[in-house]
Design a protein that fits this description.
The chain is α/β, with parallel strands linked by helices and 463 residues long. The chain contains 17 helices and 16 strands. The chain has two domains: 291 residues, NAD(P)-binding Rossmann-like Domain (Rossmann fold, 3-Layer(aba) Sandwich), CATH 3.40.50; 151 residues, Quinohemoprotein amine dehydrogenase alpha subunit, domain 2 (Lipocalin), CATH 2.40.128.120. It has an eight-stranded antiparallel beta barrel with strand order 8-9-10-11-12-13-14-15. A seven-stranded parallel β-sheet has the order 3-2-1-4-5-6-7, sandwiched between helices. The relative contact order is 0.08.
């Protein structure tokens, strides 16, 4: 854990003071990406066409103590973009990182997509990125360094019916971006191509669809989409690491490689067309029971989303055992330790979303007693049920004792079906000074099996 924290701090320190321009920065992925770079100590140039939202973003990010300039810019306006580049270079002398994030969506079958709509999509999603690349590239070449980030879309790989125009343009910018990576290396300019998966932002709020499958996919969006905060962190990490391509979500990799094989590609696209295309509505009606099944599923989805929107749960847990101070922090020998906490979530849908950053992450609060240090000290933190990624359960909480801040991290490890009676009961912990990370004591605490009835009876649904 110490090494992960060290490298994370190193990446942030390496970016400190960099000048970062983000298009479409007033909300969604752009705003949260700006927040990540602000936390790393970068100075920001934020552009958007929405002046009101842009001002709100400026006020929100100004609290982070970095320099922020905002410009109202229509990315499809070549002259406006070139004027922006001249002003930025004149004022700052350089631009370190350019993030082409601005984009608009469109949902309709290709035969019903007008030429005017095509032109609007191409102007914003295609030319918008290229205008910025060509406007800032000369200064980057002159400086002998720079980093360009182009945000494409996972639909470049899924290529879903009724999203054809959007997918085609995003695929085009992805191809250009990936080729640029190799062409600009000789100038010491990095290019990162990002393929976000479905992201739960306002991007999809106005999507209207007449098909059962389409309505169902929009209804269940919160369950299979990612939060913009999560995607922003991934983009920041990709830039910090200098990655060539960031796929964001494993499902994008699945779709990419399914398209390599004609049989699997054909099956995937037929299935998507069957569910999402208007032309297949009649086919759905002809299959006995299918329409009723989809309508029932949608009804259940509506009920679940309505009921679980602000629904959560909480449980009480007692872990007890012993700890031992390291040299210099307390008397020798093993001493009593226990913590009694309440953990759970107030957002069940986020808790159940395997692609979100709050998947099976619980808020935690309670008290901790560590003989020789504190008794019933209030503690606050989180409990992570990391069954799938690491086969662990991790407790992390902070507390204060005698004016000093401490952090406890305890893990139940090697959790597999065949050893649950042991792995679910035994927690190995480390107590550290929060400010310095210096180790204070080590511990082993246990969940006693005779407390199971009390543990289970503590379960409560909360609203």
């Amino acid at each position: 854990m110490e090494w992960k924290s060290f490298f994370k701090k190193q990446r942030k320190s390496n970016l400190k003071g960099k000048l970062v321009l983000i298009t479409g920065a007033a909300q969604g992925i752009g705003l949260h990406t700006a927040s990540e770079f602000a936390d790393a100590g970068c100075n920001l140039i934020l552009t958007d066409i929405n002046s009101e939202k842009l001002e709100e973003a400026h006020q929100r990010l100004s609290r982070k103590g970095v320099k922020i300039d905002t410009y109202i810019v229509n990315v499809s306006d070549k002259e406006a973009v070139e004027a922006l580049a001249r002003e930025v270079i004149e004022k700052h002398g350089k631009l370190d990182i350019l993030i082409n994030n601005a984009g608009i969506g469109h949902h309709d079958e290709l035969e019903d997509t007008s030429i005017e709509t095509w032109k609007k999509l191409i102007d914003v999603n295609f030319w918008g990125s290229l205008y910025h690349i060509y406007a800032f590239l000369p200064a980057m070449k002159e400086a002998g360094k720079g980093h360009i980030v182009n945000v494409s879309s996972g639909q470049a790989f899924f290529r879903m019916p009724t999203w054809g125009a959007y997918a085609a343009i995003k695929l085009a910018i992805g191809v250009i971006s990936e080729i640029l990576h190799y062409e600009l290396r000789r100038y010491n300019i990095k290019v990162t191509t990002v393929y976000p998966y479905m992201v739960n932002t306002g991007f999809y709020k106005d999507v209207e669809t007449e098909t059962l499958g389409g309505r169902l996919s929009m209804l269940l969006l919160p369950l299979y989409s990612q939060k913009p905060e999560t995607v922003a962190r991934i983009i920041f990490r990709a830039v910090a690491q200098g990655k060539r391509v960031e796929m964001v979500n494993p499902l994008n990799n699945v779709a990419k490689y399914l398209n390599v094989f004609p049989i699997t590609s054909d099956l995937m696209n037929k299935a998507l067309t069957f569910l999402l295309s208007e032309s297949d509505n009649n086919m759905i009606e002809k299959i006995p029971g299918l329409q009723m099944a989809l309508l029932t599923l949608m009804s259940l989805g509506n009920q679940v989303q309505s009921a679980a929107g602000n629904l959560g749960f909480k449980m009480d847990e007692l872990m007890q055992g012993e700890h031992e101070f390291v040299d210099g922090f307390g008397s020798e020998g093993k001493k009593r330790m226990f913590f009694k906490v309440t953990w759970g979530t107030s957002q069940l849908l986020d808790w159940l979303n395997p692609f979100g950053d709050r998947f099976m992450v619980n808020d935690l609060e309670g008290t901790v007693t560590i003989d020789g240090l504190c008794e019933n000290a209030p503690c606050v933190g989180k409990l992570e049920l990391k069954y799938f990624a690491e086969q662990k359960i991790r407790y992390t909480f902070d507390f204060e004792a005698y004016g000093e801040q401490y952090q406890f991290i305890g893990e139940k490890r090697n959790i597999y079906p065949w050893n649950l009676p042991y792995s679910h009961t035994c927690c190995f912990g480390e107590l550290r000074l929060k400010e310095t990370g210096e180790l204070v004591s080590t511990s082993v605490t246990h969940f006693r099996l005779d407390t199971i009835p009390e543990f289970l009876s503590s379960f409560q649904i909360v609203k």
